[in-house]
Amino acid sequence: MAKHETPFLDELENGPWPSFVSDLKQQAEVRAKNEKGVEFQIPQDCVDDLLGVVELSYKHGRTHWKHGGIVGVFGYGGGVIGRYCDQPKLFPGVEHFHTMRVNQPCGKYYSTEYLRQLTELWDFRGSGVTNMHGATGDIILLGTTTPQLEEVFWTLTHDFGQDLGGSGSNLRTPADCLGQSRCEYSCYDTSALCHFLTNEYQDELHRPAFPYKFKFKFDGCPNCCVASIARSDMSFIGTWKDDIRIDQDAVNKYVEKDPAYPANAGAHKGRDWGPFDIKKEVLDLCPTHCMKFENKKLTINTEHCTRCMHCINVMPRALKIGKETGLSILCGAKAPILDGAQMGSLLVPFVEVNADNDYEAITEIIENIWDWWMEEGKNRERLGELIMRQGFQKLLEVTGIEAQPQHVAYPRTNPYIFWKEDEVPGGWERDVDEYRKHHLR
Amino acid sequence: MAFISTGYNPAKPMENRITDIGPKDYHDFYPPVIANNKGKWSHHEILEPGVLVHVGDSGDEVYTVRVGGCRLMSTSHINEICDIADKHCDGYVRFTTRNNIEFMVDSKDKVEPLKNDLASRKFAGGSNKFPIGGTGAGVTNIVHTQGWIHCHTPATDASGTVKATMDTLFDDFQQMRLPAQLRVSMACCLNMCGAVHCSDIAILGYHRKPPMLDHEYLDKVCEIPLAVAACPTAAIKPSKQTLANGTEVKSVEVKNERCMYCGNCYTMCPSMPLADTEGDGIVLMAGGKVSNRISDPKFSKVVVAFLPNEMPRWPSMTDAIKKIVNAYSNGANKYERLGDWAERIGWEKFFSACELDFTHHLIDDFRQQAYMSWRQTTNFKF
């Protein structure tokens, strides 16, 4: 028998998509029966009360969580999101309902042994409710009380070798696409770089020292499966410099409609789009029209290719990324608050990804940007907004990067151009009397 | 409920504390076929909705079965995922960047038993626990936020709107009949945690009333300059207020006609709540993307200025989404993302094709960038 009636939420048990309500009800029941004999460290009926408070929100059309909440573990300035219910008498099981962010492994691969350790801990010391995963990447343990925070952290670090993720004005938990682990497009080992930088910058992740939050994301190619270009202050996107590798026999297999060579790896199998047409589906859609198919031979004018991935995506068995690989760095992506949404802007067109020297070329750029933003960034000003306020040129200056046409979608249209004084012969110190000798008043 | 200590000593909190160890090493979690072929994959194919095969240069194959996950999940559900992974996948599983779950096996004959097992599992209420799909040119999982489950600033619920939408679009999760993949995302306020600003279709929680001011407490709990600086339209200024008992307190004043209800002042100041039953609801956006394929990444644009919160199933919202998906599916060319289609036919035709009203709310009026969104040409369609 459920603790609270939930007529609104009950409606969300219908339909084919997995129902979070059914899952929460199942969890409430598991806790009520407690067949495993867990010595619950937070109220046994917390999931019932979670359903109750959400039902009340469905009735009111308003949230029932109090503003904010500052809790955590000693030594760190973030990692835990405090939360308190605004109706604690009605729902004592969720009076405290803090979230712990747990740093996920790169690529989000798991062994069941590890996941079971985690669920056992969370059943014991938390609500047994999670998010798999938070939008930034963390494993989210949703709902526990303040006294349990240090205990959970102790078990995570001592028994699991596992740390918390980030929150607050710091480096947040980095995340990557699955990269070379299971994708032939990946231009570098996203997981290796993500893991290295997460460990390299643990201090910046756990102890807020920045003007505001800062995110890293790592995409293996311009398809952007982890959306780094939109969702990270520094976006690392794999690319290559040399030719796309073409297997002409395989190209002709696509053209001949060999069933083992479906266009776009079969992504459009659910509708009849007609027979594959290399001209219509590849050549004519190439954004730079740098491809030709003549006499059963595909050629690509590499000089004009912008590596958008379309032809490779359409014919993955015939076209491969180049061999001279690296990544591009784009900066400044953010959501609208305060001055409007931004996507990452291209800062470094190409940089090598070299694990042997601890990614020196990449860490240097990161640290130059941090030095600048930490000094100049205003309170709660994202990197993208600092770039807007002080100018893209300033970003180039602090990173020691020469301006190049690749840095713009188009050159400025207004002529409000600043010059540095030393760029102008004679400087700015002038004598108006000298001027008047030649130009009478 | 006796407190059980791990060994942590609150009297000596820094003793035996372990810090800065970071995430677990991903190498510990790779299935053998992944570890053996990493960086040496030749190609892949989507065999059917939800089922992928990757072929290594070595000839090794890995078959992936992708299933929907509702992101908010219990340990019971995770344990069930583990049971499946133990039974079929040698104890390995992964999650995607859109919170789907992927089970991998290293030979084709293991795929059918896995699929049958997944498809057979239902929740007590009847919904699928592990619907197979989310690949290719279809609809995949909805990236979403906390909503009324856990957040203090939402204008709508995340899990509920997502469940209602995924039920409506469920056929397209299990099919690949669209012109290109269609990414739907959801955020319960315009902080836009997640991907609302860059998705094909986006659901956004929105307020329509300025904050209430809890003058008695404001100066006690808020850093007033931060609340002032939090406003993108400079609608907030410091002020002195006289309470009913005659006490004069420091507080703020909000110029209501300059407020567009973003809620950022409430994020900074607990004495400025703004949630409201009738005022709050949904904005729909469309046409964003993050990939660089053919066209550049795009921001999503506001296409429906307001739909009411209609708990528990948000029918006006799901109807509008269905109309957009249908019009896109019927109108777009192969490989065209929703935003590519809308830009090709022109947004005026997007609104007629989707049968959506165009209202003054959709015209940008935020600073200099607004001008760039108006039409400086005679090229338009009637």
Automatic annotation (TrEMBL), chain A:
Domain 4Fe-4S ferredoxin-type: 296-324
Gene Ontology cellular component annotations, sorted alphabetically: sulfite reductase complex (NADPH)
Biological processes, Gene Ontology terms: sulfate assimilation
InterPro entries, A to Z: 4Fe4S_Fe-S-bd, DsrA, Nit/Sulf_reduc_fer-like_dom_sf, NO2/SO3_Rdtase_4Fe4S_dom, NO2/SO3_Rdtase_4Fe4S_prot, NO2/SO3_Rdtase_4Fe4S_sf
EC number: 1.8.99.5
Keyword entries, A-Z: 4Fe-4S, Iron, Iron-sulfur, Metal-binding, Oxidoreductase
GO molecular function: 4 iron, 4 sulfur cluster binding; dissimilatory sulfite reductase (NADH) activity; heme binding; metal ion binding; sulfite reductase (ferredoxin) activity; sulfite reductase activity
Any Pfam family matching the protein: NIR_SIR
PROSITE patterns per the UniProt record, alphabetical: 4FE4S_FER_2
Keyword Iron-sulfur: yes
Name listed for the protein in its UniProt record: Dissimilatory-type sulfite reductase subunit alpha
Source species: Desulfobacter hydrogenophilus
Automatic annotation (TrEMBL), chain B:
GO biological process annotation, one example: sulfate assimilation
EC numbers for this chain: 1.8.99.5
GO molecular function, one term: metal ion binding
Keywords: 4Fe-4S, Iron, Iron-sulfur, Metal-binding, Oxidoreductase
SUPFAM superfamilies, per the entry: 4Fe-4S ferredoxins, Nitrite and sulphite reductase 4Fe-4S domain-like, Nitrite/Sulfite reductase N-terminal domain-like
Record's protein name: Dissimilatory-type sulfite reductase subunit beta
Gene name per UniProt: dsrB
InterPro entries documented for this protein: 4Fe4S_Fe-S-bd, 4Fe4S_Fe_S_CS, DsrB, NiRdtase/SiRdtase_haem-b_fer, Nit/Sulf_reduc_fer-like_dom_sf, NO2/SO3_Rdtase_4Fe4S_dom, NO2/SO3_Rdtase_4Fe4S_prot, NO2/SO3_Rdtase_4Fe4S_sf
Pfam families to which the protein is assigned, alphabetical: NIR_SIR, NIR_SIR_ferr
Record's GO cellular component terms: sulfite reductase complex (NADPH)
Superkingdom field: Bacteria
Gene3D superfamilies per the UniProt record, alphabetical: 3.30.70.20, 3.30.70.3340, Sulfite Reductase Hemoprotein, domain 1
Cofactor or coenzyme needed: [4Fe-4S] cluster; siroheme
